[in-house]
Specification:
alpha+beta, Aminopeptidase, seven-stranded mixed β-sheet, 5 helices, globular
């Protein structure tokens, strides 16, 4: 599969919101409470939220596309970290999201998005790249470990009104 990556602009906010909602529902429907999933999408996976994030000078996003017609299949979003202060050092970046539609898992899109995020974090001089994930997302955990991430702690994450204790992982440069 020929996956192309490109850097996102504010004009890509709606596309990122659609992919964010689609991948979240695809991954967790039937596993997490439906109303919590919908509430999470309504709050965080909307055009306005992505527009605000893409306007921050510290944030970067890459869109993965395939033919025909540069169809969007996933993205990665780097931001300043939002983790407990004891887990963050000055200059750290967070891989806030790396989402690929499940139909395209195993086709190299996730790997290419991860490589773009890591390369940017290194070039930016970040000492670490941090991420958080659902504790039962074993496939993602294995993917992150293959890229050198190690668990350094936990954080409380809310999906709608439902709290989870998420592992926080770090890649040191």
């Amino acid at each position: 599969m020929d996956v192309r990556l490109r850097m996102c602009t504010v004009a890509d906010a709606f596309t990122l919101a659609v992919i964010g909602s689609a991948t979240l529902l695809d991954a967790y429907a039937g596993f997490l409470p439906g109303q919590s999933l919908v509430a999470h999408c309504a709050k965080l996976h909307v055009r306005e939220a992505y527009e605000a994030e893409l306007r921050r000078p510290e944030s970067r996003a890459w869109l993965a596309e395939v033919e025909p017609g540069a169809a969007p299949i996933g993205y990665a979003l780097l931001t300043p970290p939002e983790f407990p202060p004891e887990l963050v050092q000055p200059g750290d970046l967070e891989l806030r999201r790396i989402y690929v539609l499940s139909r395209f898992h195993g086709g190299g899109a996730g790997k290419r998005l991860m490589e773009a995020a890591i390369a940017y974090a290194r070039e930016a001089g970040a000492p670490h790249l941090l991420l958080g994930l659902h504790p039962e997302n074993h496939r993602a955990m294995a993917f992150y470990r293959r890229h050198g991430f190690e668990q350094i702690g936990t954080r409380t994450f809310f999906l709608g009104q439902t709290p989870f204790t998420d592992p926080v992982m770090r890649l040191a440069f």
